[in-house]
Write a structure and sequence with these properties.
disordered C terminus; five-stranded antiparallel sheet; six-stranded mixed sheet; alpha+beta; 449 residues; 12 helices; 4 domains
Length: 449
């Protein structure tokens, strides 16, 4: 009520002033009373018109965008304009702060590695981040207000959403391949928060782990079964000295096979568990080739012509033991799968881009094209029986691939059945330095048929 008294007083003052003026004018007309009444009415009317004009100005400001200041009039309308303007400015500041907070919140959700999708009570899309759009094949803008089950038609997804049982997550196929795990949380008036995560790699790793355990179990079970059988034979059957020596020899072979398998498994575990080799520790390639050449000669026993490039003058930044293991595996494979009288060449060369490659080429039985992409998988064998007969574990090329990758390089394989194989260890230019001119030396051996 504090605003009413000043307005009444202003109206009375205007009427009084008008009445006094009217009385003075009416006195000249011999009608002071009538002049006073007419003046009072005129004063009140003038005050009302001014008040209505100020109210109109205020209403026009309210109907506009209110970006400018409210009319700065004196009295009631000036006070109302000031207070309304202050309230509007506070609301604008609060709205801007809320918008900024919302944008930050949405930016945080957008940065999430998981998909986030908001559904209303009718399962229509209210908002989704780019990860969820990628998981479900959606357009974040175009597909808003669309029913999700009209866009994602996977039967597993539709059944999960319609079941209304969201205690456990579900998995659905991802458009374009892969698997997505989804979880739903309800909130508000029937609304849903749908979270998605790409688990393709996890499932692939789980499958690889299961296959790995199964393969290891199989590889160890076979020699253990043979050893157990031989032990029972030695215990229960009377054997001649020659038969006993034969059994002991076969038991030693199986034991050596298990030792080789365990050694390769330990090598793989160490490669996966250690940090990458330092880029400032230089290893002489000539030393590595010299050591593996002697092992290859011993394994070949004169059955192959082996040519190893010597005095390359090249040094490679990395771990000598790993490099030696990789080259040794390639040479051993070449010896195992090259028929007697075949040829094996080991040579180093630089590429145009500055990288270098160490090639192990043989004239062996070769490998069909369909097997090449899987050669570096653990325990993968083109011919399982032949590989076991030659003493292979199926882990050699996996070790070679790991070593190459740990040195920033790659393993390149080319092969054709009946035409031999070429295995190239490619190293980046940053891990190579040369100190001399390369030359070639042939290891003199007699090939026997």
């Amino acid at each position: 009520m504090a605003w009413l008294i000043p307005r009444l007083l202003a109206t009375l003052a205007a009427s009084l002033l008008g009445g006094l003026a009217g009385m003075a004018v009416g006195a000249g007309w011999q009608a002071p009373a009538g002049g006073a009444l007419a003046g009072a009415l005129a004063g009140a009317l003038a005050h009302g018109l001014v008040d209505a004009w100020r109210a109109q100005r205020f209403m026009e400001w309210l109907r506009g965008d209110m970006a400018a200041s409210a009319p700065r009039d004196a009295g009631f309308w000036g006070e109302v304009g000031y207070r309304v303007e202050r309230a509007v400015r506070r609301l604008d500041q609060h709205a801007r702060a809320e918008r900024d907070r919302l944008e930050q919140f949405l930016s945080a959700i957008e940065a999430s590695p998981n998909g986030v999708l908001l559904l209303d009570g009718g399962d229509q899309i209210e908002w989704c981040n780019s990860v969820a759009a990628d998981h479900f094949g959606l357009d974040p803008l175009r597909d808003r207000r669309q029913r999700i089950t009209n866009l994602v038609r996977s039967p597993a997804f539709v059944a999960y959403l319609q079941s209304r049982r969201f205690d456990a997550a579900a998995t659905i196929p991802r458009p374009g391949g892969g698997t997505v795990s989804i979880a739903v949380r309800q909130y508000g008036d029937g609304k849903k928060l749908l979270l998605s995560q790409d688990i393709t790699e996890r499932e692939r790793n789980d499958a690889m782990r299961r296959d790995f355990v199964a393969n290891v179990s199989h590889e160890i079970r076979t020699p253990l079964t043979v050893l157990t059988g031989f032990l029972e034979t030695l215990e229960k059957l009377p054997l001649s000295d020659a038969e006993r020596r034969r059994v002991h020899s076969m038991m030693a072979q199986q034991a050596a096979r298990m030792q080789t398998l365990v050694a390769d498994l330990l090598t793989l575990a160490e490669l996966e568990g250690r940090p990458r080799p330092a880029a400032d520790r230089w290893v002489s390639l000539d030393d590595v080739l010299g050591k593996v050449r002697d092992d290859a000669q011993a394994l070949s026993a004169g059955r192959h012509a082996i040519t190893v490039q010597a005095a390359t003058g090249v040094e490679i930044a990395g771990a000598e033991a790993e490099l030696q293991s990789a080259v040794a595996n390639l040479l051993q494979n070449a010896v195992r799968y090259t028929p007697d009288g075949g040829r094996i060449d080991v040579r180093w060369s630089l590429r145009k881009d500055g990288s270098g490659e160490l090639e192990v080429r043989d004239t062996g039985i070769g490998i069909a094209r369909e097997h090449l992409p899987r050669l570096t998988e653990r325990f993968y064998r083109v011919d399982g029986s032949r590989s076991r007969d030659t003493g292979g574990t199926g882990l050699g090329l996996s070790i070679v691939k790991h070593v190459a990758q740990r040195h920033g390089g790659e393993l390149d394989i080319h092969s054709e059945p009946g035409k031999g194989s070429s295995f190239r260890l490619v190293f980046p230019a940053a891990r190579i330095r040369a100190g001399g001119a390369p030359r070639e030396r042939r290891v003199p051996q007699q090939a026997s048929g």
